[in-house]
Amino acid sequence: MTQGSGWKSFCKRSDTVSGFLIQSQSQIDGKHIQTFVSVDNKANKNFSHAILDFLPVPVKIEAVSQGLVFCVNHEPRDYFICKPTTLQWEKLPNPKTRFLTSMTAMAVLSSKPLRYKIIRFSSHKNPFSKFKSRLYYNMTCEAFDSNTWAWKRLKNVSLPYCVLLGIDQPYATSCGAFYWLVRLARINQVFAFYYGDDKESWEIFNLPPPMEESDRFDYKKLVEYQGRLALIICEREVMDLWVMENHEKKLWSKRKTWTLSTKVFKQVAGYIPPLTALYKSDIALIKGRDKKLIFYKFEDSSANVVSLENQPHEVSKLQSDSEKVNLRG
């Protein structure tokens, strides 16, 4: 079975695809490699994992949303939007900014008709500015709208100089905004960027009070939970789920507490690693050691281990139907 045929036949047999898109980097030539893993262990064993080899060039994934993948080829720098389950793709116009990408995010605003928006933050030609004796870090911001099929330059984002963005962490999406974890000295906060029509704005707000000050930054993860912004934090074998109940007032409440099985993780990882992603309310995905991913089920403390050919770097949730769409909106 060739690399592409396994994915194509899997999509033909499945009305919906649900799992994770894994991005790794080849140790031989440095190229990015994309694979797909499912919570269904039979699917992982029965088809080839290659997922983006239908594109005309090798790419790096920038953002994923509801079955759509935004990606870029570096030489030359071309941007693409694709739907892997239908093998559709379109080349996007290039942003006008000449500076390096810092972060990207994408959201599907409607499915019928299809409309999506992409936000790109990049380094500014004047990265530092001063206002009222305070130093700020500036990022260029651009938005691509599938309705206009064009990039639009937005107002720059100016963050306090000491704010550190967790750019290596995936963003969460809910309530019309993208969210990233940020750190200001020892205080952990959230950077929110709102992407509504002609209402793009941003703010920084606090995590739940018990979680603000912590050195274990890697053990915090922003996720979407039942349509709301949520935070998962792991302290040793205890994992808590906090949900933002009131977005306007920034009110958080603790919804769940799970006790992880140290026995299971010692067998498959040697220790309890930080959470990588939340698949469902009762299943988490966690990176193990030796190129392994662990689907952990909270209800019965069971673990389904998936072995990969390369060390996983970025992980994106992929849930998609197999209906063809008009990617140009």
Automatic annotation (TrEMBL):
Residues 58-257 form the F-box associated beta-propeller type domain. It comes from the Eukaryota. It comes from Prunus avium (Cherry). This is Uncharacterized protein LOC110749167.
